[in-house]
Amino acid sequence: MMKRNRLLMVGGAAIAALCMALSGCGGGASAAKNGATEQADPNQKVTITYLHRLPNKPGMTPVDEIVARWNKDHPNIQVKATQFNGNASDMITKLETDVKAGNAPDLAQIGYSELPEAYMKGIMEDVTSEAEQYSKDFAQGPFEQMQIGGKTFGLPQDTGPLVYYYNKAAFDELGISVPKTQDELIAAAKTAAAKGKYIMSFQADESGNMLTGLAGASSPWYEVDGDAWKVNTQTDGSKAVASVFQQLIDAKATSTNPRWDPSFDASLQKGELIGTIGAAWEAPLLMDSMADKGNGDWRIAQIGDWFDNAGKTGPDGGSGVAVMKGCKYKAQAMEFLDWFNTQIDDLTSQGLIVAASTGTAKTPAAWSEFYGGQDVMKEFADANANMSNFAYIPGFASVGASMQEAASKAASGTGKVSAIFDAAQSASVSTLKDSGLSVAE
User: Fold this and answer.
1) C-alpha angle 286/82/278, rounded to 5°?
2) What are the strands, taking DSSP E only, across 143-293?
3) Which residue in 140, 220, 340, 388 has the fewest CB atoms around it within 10 Å?
4) What is the largest CA-CA distance in the chain?
5) SS3 of the chain: helix, strand, coil, percent, to 5
6) Is 390 helix (H, G, I), strand (E, B) or coil?
Protein backbone atom coordinates (compact mmCIF):
# COMPACT_ATOMS: atom_id res chain seq x y z
CA MET A 1 0.00 0.00 0.00
CA MET A 2 1.28 3.45 -0.83
CA LYS A 3 2.21 5.60 2.14
CA ARG A 4 -0.46 8.05 3.25
CA ASN A 5 1.74 11.04 3.93
CA ARG A 6 3.97 13.32 1.86
CA LEU A 7 2.67 11.81 -1.33
CA LEU A 8 2.23 14.71 -3.63
CA MET A 9 2.75 18.28 -4.53
CA VAL A 10 0.38 20.56 -2.71
CA GLY A 11 0.24 20.41 1.07
CA GLY A 12 -3.11 20.67 2.82
CA ALA A 13 -2.20 24.00 4.40
CA ALA A 14 -1.15 25.43 1.04
CA ILE A 15 -4.42 24.33 -0.55
CA ALA A 16 -6.45 25.98 2.20
CA ALA A 17 -4.47 29.17 1.72
CA LEU A 18 -4.81 28.84 -2.04
CA CYS A 19 -8.56 29.27 -1.78
CA MET A 20 -8.00 32.62 -0.05
CA ALA A 21 -5.46 33.70 -2.66
CA LEU A 22 -7.86 32.74 -5.43
CA SER A 23 -10.83 34.54 -3.88
CA GLY A 24 -13.09 35.86 -6.58
CA CYS A 25 -11.87 33.27 -9.09
CA GLY A 26 -13.51 30.10 -10.43
CA GLY A 27 -16.71 29.53 -8.42
CA GLY A 28 -20.29 30.56 -8.45
CA ALA A 29 -20.69 32.59 -11.62
CA SER A 30 -19.57 29.75 -13.81
CA ALA A 31 -21.75 27.31 -11.94
CA ALA A 32 -24.81 29.49 -12.39
CA LYS A 33 -24.13 29.94 -16.09
CA ASN A 34 -23.93 26.21 -16.69
CA GLY A 35 -27.01 25.34 -14.69
CA ALA A 36 -27.69 22.73 -12.05
CA THR A 37 -26.82 19.08 -12.43
CA GLU A 38 -29.38 16.31 -12.36
CA GLN A 39 -29.88 13.11 -10.45
CA ALA A 40 -30.97 10.23 -12.66
CA ASP A 41 -33.64 7.77 -11.70
CA PRO A 42 -31.86 4.54 -10.64
CA ASN A 43 -33.61 2.72 -13.47
CA GLN A 44 -32.76 5.35 -16.08
CA LYS A 45 -29.83 4.62 -18.35
CA VAL A 46 -27.22 7.39 -18.40
CA THR A 47 -23.98 7.80 -20.33
CA ILE A 48 -20.83 9.23 -18.76
CA THR A 49 -17.97 10.49 -20.95
CA TYR A 50 -14.36 10.28 -19.76
CA LEU A 51 -11.39 12.01 -21.42
CA HIS A 52 -8.04 10.55 -20.34
CA ARG A 53 -4.41 10.66 -21.37
CA LEU A 54 -3.25 7.25 -20.18
CA PRO A 55 -0.60 5.78 -22.51
CA ASN A 56 -2.39 2.55 -23.58
CA LYS A 57 0.92 1.05 -24.75
CA PRO A 58 1.29 -2.61 -25.79
CA GLY A 59 1.33 -4.90 -22.78
CA MET A 60 -0.88 -2.55 -20.76
CA THR A 61 -4.51 -3.26 -19.94
CA PRO A 62 -6.33 -0.96 -22.40
CA VAL A 63 -8.62 1.65 -20.89
CA ASP A 64 -11.43 0.51 -23.18
CA GLU A 65 -11.10 -3.02 -21.78
CA ILE A 66 -11.31 -1.76 -18.20
CA VAL A 67 -14.33 0.38 -19.05
CA ALA A 68 -16.00 -2.52 -20.88
CA ARG A 69 -16.01 -4.54 -17.64
CA TRP A 70 -17.78 -1.70 -15.88
CA ASN A 71 -20.32 -1.30 -18.67
CA LYS A 72 -21.12 -5.03 -18.61
CA ASP A 73 -21.91 -4.93 -14.89
CA HIS A 74 -23.62 -1.52 -14.85
CA PRO A 75 -26.17 -1.38 -17.67
CA ASN A 76 -27.72 1.84 -16.35
CA ILE A 77 -24.42 3.73 -16.10
CA GLN A 78 -22.61 3.38 -19.38
CA VAL A 79 -19.19 4.99 -19.84
CA LYS A 80 -17.50 6.10 -23.04
CA ALA A 81 -13.75 6.70 -22.69
CA THR A 82 -11.69 8.73 -25.15
CA GLN A 83 -7.93 9.16 -25.19
CA PHE A 84 -6.51 12.69 -25.57
CA ASN A 85 -3.50 12.42 -27.87
CA GLY A 86 -2.28 16.01 -27.76
CA ASN A 87 0.25 17.59 -25.44
CA ALA A 88 -0.81 17.37 -21.82
CA SER A 89 -0.44 21.15 -21.51
CA ASP A 90 -3.06 21.62 -24.26
CA MET A 91 -5.74 19.62 -22.49
CA ILE A 92 -6.76 22.38 -20.05
CA THR A 93 -7.24 24.76 -22.98
CA LYS A 94 -9.40 22.19 -24.75
CA LEU A 95 -11.46 21.57 -21.63
CA GLU A 96 -12.02 25.29 -21.09
CA THR A 97 -13.18 25.66 -24.69
CA ASP A 98 -15.45 22.61 -24.41
CA VAL A 99 -17.02 23.80 -21.16
CA LYS A 100 -17.83 27.18 -22.71
CA ALA A 101 -19.33 25.40 -25.74
CA GLY A 102 -21.40 23.10 -23.53
CA ASN A 103 -19.87 19.88 -24.85
CA ALA A 104 -17.22 19.06 -22.25
CA PRO A 105 -16.70 15.46 -21.07
CA ASP A 106 -18.19 14.51 -17.73
CA LEU A 107 -14.81 13.36 -16.41
CA ALA A 108 -11.32 14.46 -17.40
CA GLN A 109 -7.81 13.67 -16.27
CA ILE A 110 -6.15 16.71 -14.70
CA GLY A 111 -2.65 16.92 -13.26
CA TYR A 112 -2.35 18.08 -9.67
CA SER A 113 -0.26 21.03 -10.83
CA GLU A 114 -3.11 21.98 -13.21
CA LEU A 115 -5.86 21.87 -10.59
CA PRO A 116 -5.41 25.50 -9.38
CA GLU A 117 -5.68 26.72 -12.99
CA ALA A 118 -8.76 24.60 -13.63
CA TYR A 119 -10.29 26.02 -10.45
CA MET A 120 -9.57 29.58 -11.52
CA LYS A 121 -11.16 28.96 -14.90
CA GLY A 122 -14.28 27.57 -13.24
CA ILE A 123 -14.37 24.42 -15.38
CA MET A 124 -14.89 21.82 -12.61
CA GLU A 125 -17.92 20.74 -10.61
CA ASP A 126 -17.96 20.77 -6.82
CA VAL A 127 -18.51 17.11 -5.89
CA THR A 128 -17.74 17.40 -2.19
CA SER A 129 -20.88 15.58 -1.05
CA GLU A 130 -20.53 12.84 -3.67
CA ALA A 131 -16.83 12.29 -2.94
CA GLU A 132 -17.07 11.97 0.83
CA GLN A 133 -18.13 8.32 0.75
CA TYR A 134 -15.09 7.42 -1.36
CA SER A 135 -12.39 9.15 0.72
CA LYS A 136 -11.48 5.89 2.48
CA ASP A 137 -10.56 4.30 -0.85
CA PHE A 138 -7.56 6.60 -1.34
CA ALA A 139 -4.49 7.64 0.58
CA GLN A 140 -5.17 10.86 2.42
CA GLY A 141 -2.45 12.89 0.71
CA PRO A 142 -3.61 12.40 -2.88
CA PHE A 143 -7.28 12.67 -1.92
CA GLU A 144 -6.54 16.14 -0.58
CA GLN A 145 -4.83 17.07 -3.84
CA MET A 146 -8.26 17.06 -5.47
CA GLN A 147 -9.50 19.66 -2.98
CA ILE A 148 -9.32 23.43 -2.89
CA GLY A 149 -10.61 25.32 0.12
CA GLY A 150 -12.36 22.27 1.51
CA LYS A 151 -14.22 21.56 -1.72
CA THR A 152 -13.56 18.36 -3.68
CA PHE A 153 -13.53 18.30 -7.48
CA GLY A 154 -12.81 14.65 -8.27
CA LEU A 155 -10.74 11.68 -7.13
CA PRO A 156 -6.97 11.04 -7.28
CA GLN A 157 -5.52 8.51 -9.68
CA ASP A 158 -1.72 8.37 -9.39
CA THR A 159 1.46 9.93 -8.03
CA GLY A 160 4.82 10.68 -9.67
CA PRO A 161 7.90 10.72 -7.42
CA LEU A 162 11.28 11.19 -9.09
CA VAL A 163 13.66 8.21 -8.90
CA TYR A 164 16.93 7.16 -10.50
CA TYR A 165 17.06 4.58 -13.30
CA TYR A 166 20.43 3.01 -14.08
CA ASN A 167 22.05 0.15 -15.97
CA LYS A 168 23.72 -1.89 -13.24
CA ALA A 169 25.65 -4.06 -15.69
CA ALA A 170 27.16 -0.98 -17.31
CA PHE A 171 27.91 0.56 -13.92
CA ASP A 172 29.67 -2.63 -12.81
CA GLU A 173 31.72 -2.66 -16.00
CA LEU A 174 32.85 0.91 -15.32
CA GLY A 175 33.55 0.15 -11.67
CA ILE A 176 31.09 2.74 -10.37
CA SER A 177 28.08 2.51 -8.08
CA VAL A 178 25.00 4.67 -7.58
CA PRO A 179 26.32 7.95 -6.11
CA LYS A 180 25.18 8.98 -2.65
CA THR A 181 26.54 12.51 -2.57
CA GLN A 182 26.89 15.42 -4.97
CA ASP A 183 30.65 15.00 -5.24
CA GLU A 184 30.25 11.27 -5.94
CA LEU A 185 27.68 12.03 -8.65
CA ILE A 186 29.94 14.45 -10.50
CA ALA A 187 32.98 12.16 -10.18
CA ALA A 188 31.06 9.11 -11.42
CA ALA A 189 29.57 11.10 -14.31
CA LYS A 190 33.06 12.17 -15.42
CA THR A 191 34.36 8.59 -15.14
CA ALA A 192 31.52 7.34 -17.35
CA ALA A 193 31.90 10.20 -19.84
CA ALA A 194 35.55 9.28 -20.35
CA LYS A 195 34.24 5.98 -21.71
CA GLY A 196 31.54 7.58 -23.85
CA LYS A 197 28.77 6.85 -21.36
CA TYR A 198 26.34 9.11 -19.49
CA ILE A 199 24.88 8.43 -16.06
CA MET A 200 22.77 11.60 -16.14
CA SER A 201 20.54 13.35 -18.65
CA PHE A 202 19.72 17.04 -18.88
CA GLN A 203 16.27 17.12 -20.45
CA ALA A 204 15.37 20.62 -21.60
CA ASP A 205 11.85 19.65 -22.59
CA GLU A 206 11.20 18.26 -19.09
CA SER A 207 12.81 21.12 -17.17
CA GLY A 208 9.49 22.55 -16.02
CA ASN A 209 8.66 19.25 -14.39
CA MET A 210 11.91 17.49 -13.47
CA LEU A 211 14.04 20.47 -12.44
CA THR A 212 11.13 21.93 -10.51
CA GLY A 213 10.67 18.65 -8.67
CA LEU A 214 14.38 18.33 -7.91
CA ALA A 215 14.70 21.93 -6.73
CA GLY A 216 11.49 21.70 -4.73
CA ALA A 217 12.67 18.62 -2.86
CA SER A 218 14.48 20.86 -0.39
CA SER A 219 12.33 23.99 -0.27
CA PRO A 220 9.08 25.25 -1.84
CA TRP A 221 8.90 27.97 -4.44
CA TYR A 222 5.41 29.25 -3.73
CA GLU A 223 3.72 30.22 -0.50
CA VAL A 224 0.67 32.27 0.38
CA ASP A 225 1.11 35.27 2.69
CA GLY A 226 -2.32 36.54 3.66
CA ASP A 227 -4.07 37.07 0.34
CA ALA A 228 -0.90 37.32 -1.74
CA TRP A 229 1.51 34.84 -3.27
CA LYS A 230 5.19 34.84 -2.27
CA VAL A 231 7.43 33.66 -5.11
CA ASN A 232 11.03 32.48 -4.75
CA THR A 233 12.25 30.12 -7.45
CA GLN A 234 15.89 30.85 -6.64
CA THR A 235 16.08 28.82 -3.45
CA ASP A 236 19.14 26.95 -2.19
CA GLY A 237 17.68 23.84 -3.84
CA SER A 238 17.39 25.62 -7.18
CA LYS A 239 20.95 26.90 -6.90
CA ALA A 240 22.21 23.39 -6.15
CA VAL A 241 20.38 21.92 -9.15
CA ALA A 242 21.77 24.67 -11.37
CA SER A 243 25.30 24.15 -10.07
CA VAL A 244 25.33 20.37 -10.52
CA PHE A 245 23.89 20.35 -14.02
CA GLN A 246 26.09 23.24 -15.12
CA GLN A 247 29.19 21.33 -13.99
CA LEU A 248 28.00 18.24 -15.86
CA ILE A 249 27.23 20.18 -19.04
CA ASP A 250 30.56 22.03 -18.92
CA ALA A 251 32.39 18.72 -18.46
CA LYS A 252 30.35 17.10 -21.24
CA ALA A 253 29.40 14.50 -18.64
CA THR A 254 25.65 14.45 -19.22
CA SER A 255 23.39 13.63 -22.13
CA THR A 256 21.47 16.65 -23.42
CA ASN A 257 18.99 14.86 -25.67
CA PRO A 258 15.40 16.05 -25.07
CA ARG A 259 13.35 13.42 -23.26
CA TRP A 260 10.64 13.13 -25.89
CA ASP A 261 12.92 13.28 -28.92
CA PRO A 262 13.89 10.05 -30.77
CA SER A 263 17.53 10.80 -29.92
CA PHE A 264 16.81 10.01 -26.26
CA ASP A 265 15.59 6.51 -27.09
CA ALA A 266 18.49 6.03 -29.47
CA SER A 267 21.01 6.87 -26.75
CA LEU A 268 19.44 4.22 -24.51
CA GLN A 269 19.45 1.58 -27.23
CA LYS A 270 23.09 2.28 -28.12
CA GLY A 271 24.11 1.89 -24.49
CA GLU A 272 25.34 5.49 -24.28
CA LEU A 273 22.81 6.66 -21.69
CA ILE A 274 23.16 4.32 -18.72
CA GLY A 275 21.54 6.42 -16.00
CA THR A 276 18.78 9.01 -15.80
CA ILE A 277 16.45 10.67 -13.33
CA GLY A 278 12.81 10.08 -14.20
CA ALA A 279 9.33 9.94 -12.75
CA ALA A 280 8.06 6.62 -11.42
CA TRP A 281 5.54 6.44 -14.24
CA GLU A 282 8.42 6.25 -16.73
CA ALA A 283 9.34 2.68 -15.71
CA PRO A 284 7.37 0.99 -18.53
CA LEU A 285 8.12 3.81 -20.99
CA LEU A 286 11.86 3.27 -20.59
CA MET A 287 11.34 -0.44 -21.16
CA ASP A 288 9.48 0.38 -24.35
CA SER A 289 12.17 2.86 -25.39
CA MET A 290 14.89 0.22 -25.12
CA ALA A 291 12.95 -2.42 -27.05
CA ASP A 292 14.30 -5.32 -24.93
CA LYS A 293 17.89 -4.08 -25.06
CA GLY A 294 19.35 -4.11 -21.57
CA ASN A 295 16.64 -6.47 -20.34
CA GLY A 296 17.57 -7.55 -16.80
CA ASP A 297 20.41 -5.05 -16.55
CA TRP A 298 18.51 -2.02 -15.31
CA ARG A 299 17.61 -1.08 -11.73
CA ILE A 300 15.80 1.68 -9.88
CA ALA A 301 17.24 3.56 -6.91
CA GLN A 302 16.36 6.51 -4.72
CA ILE A 303 17.83 9.89 -5.60
CA GLY A 304 20.85 10.60 -3.43
CA ASP A 305 21.78 13.82 -1.68
CA TRP A 306 22.80 15.35 -5.00
CA PHE A 307 21.07 18.73 -4.83
CA ASP A 308 21.29 19.69 -1.14
CA ASN A 309 18.06 17.74 -0.80
CA ALA A 310 19.04 15.61 2.21
CA GLY A 311 17.99 12.52 0.30
CA LYS A 312 14.47 13.81 -0.34
CA THR A 313 12.84 13.51 -3.73
CA GLY A 314 10.29 15.67 -5.48
CA PRO A 315 7.24 15.24 -7.69
CA ASP A 316 7.02 14.98 -11.45
CA GLY A 317 3.46 14.51 -12.57
CA GLY A 318 0.69 12.64 -10.90
CA SER A 319 -2.93 13.37 -11.63
CA GLY A 320 -6.53 12.91 -10.66
CA VAL A 321 -9.78 12.79 -12.56
CA ALA A 322 -12.08 15.79 -12.14
CA VAL A 323 -15.81 16.13 -12.75
CA MET A 324 -16.22 18.81 -15.37
CA LYS A 325 -18.63 21.72 -15.28
CA GLY A 326 -21.91 20.78 -16.87
CA CYS A 327 -21.87 17.12 -15.84
CA LYS A 328 -25.55 16.19 -15.43
CA TYR A 329 -25.06 13.07 -13.35
CA LYS A 330 -22.39 13.75 -10.76
CA ALA A 331 -23.29 10.87 -8.47
CA GLN A 332 -23.10 8.32 -11.27
CA ALA A 333 -19.88 9.82 -12.60
CA MET A 334 -18.30 9.58 -9.16
CA GLU A 335 -19.51 6.02 -8.68
CA PHE A 336 -17.72 4.98 -11.86
CA LEU A 337 -14.66 7.06 -11.06
CA ASP A 338 -14.19 5.47 -7.65
CA TRP A 339 -14.38 2.03 -9.27
CA PHE A 340 -12.01 2.93 -12.10
CA ASN A 341 -9.38 4.58 -9.91
CA THR A 342 -9.29 1.55 -7.60
CA GLN A 343 -8.56 -0.97 -10.38
CA ILE A 344 -5.02 -1.23 -9.05
CA ASP A 345 -3.63 -3.99 -11.27
CA ASP A 346 -5.04 -2.44 -14.44
CA LEU A 347 -3.76 1.04 -13.64
CA THR A 348 -0.39 -0.32 -12.58
CA SER A 349 -0.12 -1.95 -16.00
CA GLN A 350 -0.55 1.55 -17.43
CA GLY A 351 2.58 2.62 -15.58
CA LEU A 352 0.74 4.43 -12.80
CA ILE A 353 1.77 4.58 -9.17
CA VAL A 354 -1.78 4.39 -7.92
CA ALA A 355 -3.30 6.62 -5.26
CA ALA A 356 -5.82 3.96 -4.19
CA SER A 357 -5.45 2.52 -0.70
CA THR A 358 -7.72 -0.46 -1.29
CA GLY A 359 -4.92 -2.92 -2.03
CA THR A 360 -1.23 -3.43 -2.63
CA ALA A 361 0.23 -2.67 -6.03
CA LYS A 362 2.16 -5.65 -7.37
CA THR A 363 5.20 -5.31 -9.58
CA PRO A 364 4.20 -6.58 -13.05
CA ALA A 365 6.19 -9.63 -14.13
CA ALA A 366 7.56 -7.84 -17.18
CA TRP A 367 8.82 -4.98 -15.02
CA SER A 368 10.45 -7.37 -12.57
CA GLU A 369 12.20 -9.17 -15.41
CA PHE A 370 13.48 -5.99 -17.02
CA TYR A 371 14.66 -4.51 -13.73
CA GLY A 372 16.59 -7.60 -12.67
CA GLY A 373 14.01 -9.13 -10.34
CA GLN A 374 13.66 -5.92 -8.34
CA ASP A 375 10.43 -5.19 -6.44
CA VAL A 376 9.82 -2.03 -8.43
CA MET A 377 6.60 -1.05 -6.69
CA LYS A 378 8.27 -1.18 -3.29
CA GLU A 379 10.97 1.17 -4.57
CA PHE A 380 8.27 3.55 -5.74
CA ALA A 381 6.43 3.28 -2.42
CA ASP A 382 9.68 4.25 -0.67
CA ALA A 383 10.02 7.24 -3.01
CA ASN A 384 6.43 8.26 -2.29
CA ALA A 385 7.12 8.18 1.44
CA ASN A 386 10.25 10.27 0.91
CA MET A 387 8.69 12.93 -1.30
CA SER A 388 8.52 16.57 -0.30
CA ASN A 389 5.43 18.72 -0.60
CA PHE A 390 5.38 21.30 -3.38
CA ALA A 391 2.64 23.84 -4.08
CA TYR A 392 2.08 24.98 -7.66
CA ILE A 393 0.57 28.27 -8.77
CA PRO A 394 -2.34 28.75 -11.16
CA GLY A 395 -1.06 28.90 -14.73
CA PHE A 396 2.14 27.00 -13.95
CA ALA A 397 2.18 25.71 -17.54
CA SER A 398 3.34 29.17 -18.64
CA VAL A 399 6.17 29.02 -16.13
CA GLY A 400 7.19 25.61 -17.45
CA ALA A 401 7.27 26.93 -21.02
CA SER A 402 9.63 29.76 -20.01
CA MET A 403 11.85 27.27 -18.20
CA GLN A 404 12.03 25.03 -21.25
CA GLU A 405 13.14 27.91 -23.46
CA ALA A 406 15.97 28.77 -21.06
CA ALA A 407 16.86 25.09 -20.64
CA SER A 408 17.23 24.62 -24.39
CA LYS A 409 19.83 27.40 -24.43
CA ALA A 410 21.67 25.81 -21.51
CA ALA A 411 21.70 22.44 -23.29
CA SER A 412 23.18 23.99 -26.44
CA GLY A 413 25.81 25.91 -24.49
CA THR A 414 24.40 29.33 -25.36
CA GLY A 415 22.94 29.87 -21.90
CA LYS A 416 23.39 28.92 -18.26
CA VAL A 417 21.34 26.51 -16.19
CA SER A 418 20.83 29.19 -13.54
CA ALA A 419 18.88 31.21 -16.14
CA ILE A 420 16.17 28.53 -16.01
CA PHE A 421 15.31 29.53 -12.47
CA ASP A 422 15.57 33.23 -13.29
CA ALA A 423 13.03 32.60 -16.04
CA ALA A 424 10.83 30.72 -13.59
CA GLN A 425 10.85 33.69 -11.20
CA SER A 426 9.84 36.32 -13.75
CA ALA A 427 7.29 34.02 -15.43
CA SER A 428 5.72 33.09 -12.08
CA VAL A 429 5.26 36.70 -11.05
CA SER A 430 3.89 37.80 -14.42
CA THR A 431 1.57 34.77 -14.64
CA LEU A 432 0.06 35.50 -11.24
CA LYS A 433 -0.34 39.21 -11.96
CA ASP A 434 -1.84 38.53 -15.40
CA SER A 435 -4.38 36.32 -13.62
CA GLY A 436 -5.34 39.21 -11.36
CA LEU A 437 -3.71 37.67 -8.28
CA SER A 438 -1.66 39.56 -5.73
CA VAL A 439 2.07 38.98 -5.42
CA ALA A 440 3.95 39.90 -2.28
CA GLU A 441 6.99 42.02 -3.10
Assistant:
1) 20
2) 147-148, 151-152, 154-156, 158-159, 162-167, 222-225, 228-231, 275-279
3) 140
4) 70
5) 45, 15, 40
6) coil
